[in-house]
Amino acid sequence: MSRTAHRLIGPEEPLWAPHHPEADPVSLHTLGFWLYMMSDALIFAALFAAYAVLDHPYNAAGGPQISDVVHPVAAFIQTVIIFTSVFAYSLAMVGLKAGNRAFVIGGLVAAVLLGAAFLGLELRDFAVLIAEGATPDRSGLLSVFFVLVATHGIHMVFGILWMLVMIVQVAMKGFTTAVVTRLLNLRIFWMFQASIWVCVFVFVYLNGAYR
Amino acid sequence: MSLHRADPLDHPDVRNASGIAFVAGYAASVGLMAIALMVTLRHEMSYVRFVIAVAILGGLALLAQAVLMFRLDLSGGQRWKTISLLLVVPLFVLSIGLTGWMFHTLYPRTMLDFMQVQGSGM
């Protein structure tokens, strides 16, 4: 749909003008999704709390310590990749502001590819650990390590799937109110993954490697 | 249904996208995490100083992301997102900190061989 089709029709003020008497559907949806992400943050808080409890040599049960399973330099590469993926999505939002459909799709594709690269590195790390016998059932410490990192990874998977859907919707429907609202919510979701990864990187990888 | 129709691309949440802010947020996030990595690899601080240093660096990276990437501020469109985040952060920190503290004081009183492995722990 072209931009001109959405231009102001009828009443003098756009629906999202400040102090407009009617509810702004875009802001309502983004605020609602933002509050959902705040509750999602508390799921991670529970996992970080479990990690704080189990991150002790006692809970390694004679198996590998956390310093044996984390590699801060490799995790930093993952950090740069996820930050770059979020940056690519951010550039797509600059393209959205300009109404440039190709720019938005390009940014989403770049964000998907970088997100997939992040997940590939994470899966490779998991495969190496499991091959060395450091499986989730080896100890409480390894259980919480795998659950915490994999929960973030599952969020990444859903973010990538959502982006693939949005690429199709932007290409087929253009910038309708519903599509723009979904892009704004996905922006919140994807940027949130980078913020959670900062906590994982510092709390698990750097803290674990310093022992 | 509203009679008002407006271009969704004119919405404040779309208009607040800024290439300069995104570049600054990206650079700040990568730079701060690179410094945290260097601090870790050098291994020159006591453990307590290290924890404080990386916590500050991580906090600054999260702040940079909130302001420059999420574009949170006190404007009409972002005010309640900012407030809800400010209210969630203490819950996030307290739920982790209090749980960790509770169990680390519980361990010495309940696990007989705890003292044997405590030396290599936190």
From TrEMBL, chain A:
Any Gene Ontology biological process: aerobic electron transport chain
Family: Belongs to the cytochrome c oxidase subunit 3 family.
Coiled-coil ranges from the UniProt annotation: none
Keyword tags: Cell membrane, Membrane, Transmembrane, Transmembrane helix
Domain Heme-copper oxidase subunit III family profile: 31-209
Protein's name in the database: Cytochrome o ubiquinol oxidase subunit 3
Protein's membrane topology: Multi-pass membrane protein
Protein's organism: Acidiphilium rubrum
TrEMBL record, chain B:
Keyword terms of this UniProt record: Membrane, Transmembrane, Transmembrane helix
Transmembrane domains' residue ranges: 20-41, 47-70, 82-103
Superkingdom field: Bacteria
Name of this chain's protein: Cytochrome o ubiquinol oxidase operon protein cyoD
Organism, as annotated: Acidiphilium rubrum
